[in-house]
């Protein structure tokens, strides 16, 4: 039943791989799946995730998330291995990743050098896969949080919090930069096949900077001051 559920919702192709270097953690990891199946599934999921790293590709990960959710019902360790290998494939400092926990611990300090696309993907993984599953186990347990790794919940929640905050700062910075670019008159010189982006919600973003002044980096504060000047 678990195999049928995974195969039903999967829309990506399957990659053929060798079993010469089969990791020990795959042995009997998921009932109903052979060792070769598990290696192929991991390779296919990782390959598909890599395709979504391209900013031009619509970020539609529902089949990947649903497949991982189905696997997670019977083997959370298998899903954790896939996530660890995914992070390892693009992490700024892969040599420091001795485990998924080490990545989660160091992530907040490295988000400023991670591209926005991967941060969006991190947020989807946190919101759609990891945290809902942890909370579901917690609520269904007769012993409340005793069956859940409380520290892991904190680490994933902290990663989501910092990632969303970093993306918000980037969006505000991009918006302010676009406003200043349009005000400079340079946009009028662009060819017709390169339309300029006209930002919205500028006033709300200015107010957001004021309300979060102690958390905003200096370069964003300077951009906000420049935008304030042209609006006077």
From TrEMBL:
<protein>
    <submittedName>
        <fullName>Uncharacterized protein</fullName>
    </submittedName>
</protein>
<dbReference type="GO" id="GO:0006384">
    <property type="term" value="P:transcription initiation at RNA polymerase III promoter"/>
</dbReference>
<dbReference type="GO" id="GO:0000127">
    <property type="term" value="C:transcription factor TFIIIC complex"/>
</dbReference>
<dbReference type="InterPro" id="IPR044230">
    <property type="entry name" value="GTF3C4"/>
</dbReference>
<dbReference type="GO" id="GO:0004402">
    <property type="term" value="F:histone acetyltransferase activity"/>
</dbReference>
């Amino acid at each position: 039943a678990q195999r049928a559920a995974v195969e039903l919702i999967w829309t990506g192709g399957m990659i053929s791989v060798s079993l010469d270097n089969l990791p020990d953690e795959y042995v009997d990891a998921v009932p109903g799946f052979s060792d070769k199946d598990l290696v192929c599934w991991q390779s296919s999921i990782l390959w598909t995730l890599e395709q979504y790293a391209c900013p031009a590709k619509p970020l539609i990960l529902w089949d990947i998330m649903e497949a991982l959710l189905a696997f997670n019902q019977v083997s959370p360790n298998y899903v954790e291995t896939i996530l660890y290998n995914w992070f390892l494939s693009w992490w700024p400092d892969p040599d420091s990743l001795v485990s998924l926990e080490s990545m989660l611990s160091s992530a907040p300090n490295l988000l400023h050098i991670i591209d926005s696309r991967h941060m969006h993907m991190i947020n989807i993984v946190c919101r759609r896969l990891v945290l809902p599953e942890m909370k579901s186990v917690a609520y269904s347990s007769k012993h409340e949080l005793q069956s859940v790794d409380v520290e892991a919940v904190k680490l994933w929640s902290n990663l989501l919090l910092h990632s969303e905050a970093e993306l918000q700062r980037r969006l505000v910075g991009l918006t302010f930069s676009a406003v200043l670019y349009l005000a400079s008159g340079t946009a009028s010189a662009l060819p017709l096949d390169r339309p300029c982006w006209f930002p919205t919600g500028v006033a709300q973003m200015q107010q957001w900077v004021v309300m979060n002044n102690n958390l905003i980096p200096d370069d964003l504060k300077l951009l906000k001051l420049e935008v304030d000047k042209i609006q006077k």
